[in-house]
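Students often ask why we bother encoding 3D structure as a string. The short answer is that it lets us treat folding as translation between two languages. Here is a chain of 147 residues written in the first language.
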Amino acid sequence: MLQRLHLVLIGKIPQPRQILEFTTTLSSGGVIDTSNSGQRNPFTPPAHFDTVRMPENTPPHAQLAAHRRRVESRLAREPGISVVNVTDFATYDRVRDAERETRNRYRQSIGYVTDEELRALTKEHYAQVRDGVMAELTRLQREDDKK
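And here it is in the second language, the structure alphabet:
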């Protein structure tokens, strides 16, 4: 373990990248996300989720500044909305649960994954796994439809 850490510190092994995400929930139900996930995340968000994926090497302060500009711009364009203030864990849980439920409903509505997303996820293995993955997703969709 220490040997690996030493190799990371001296640059012989690349340091794992951390994904940082800033999220602002709006009173309209919209969500503004700014992350440094670059091309790692091929999934399309629901329509009212305004998502920007900056390059992985974006410094946190630059990412935060970009997120703040995006929020300010949205509030200026839509004067009737406001930012949902999260001041306690109960509010945080409620906001996160609502976002998760929205994402889940959206995923279910498109059959969980688009062909383009599956291609991006599986890369050179796409042709080998496509039929099996799609069959399993169809089975899951039927199960969800029964609920």
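Translate back mentally: Strands lie at 21-25, 31-35, 49-53. Keep this in mind for the problem set.
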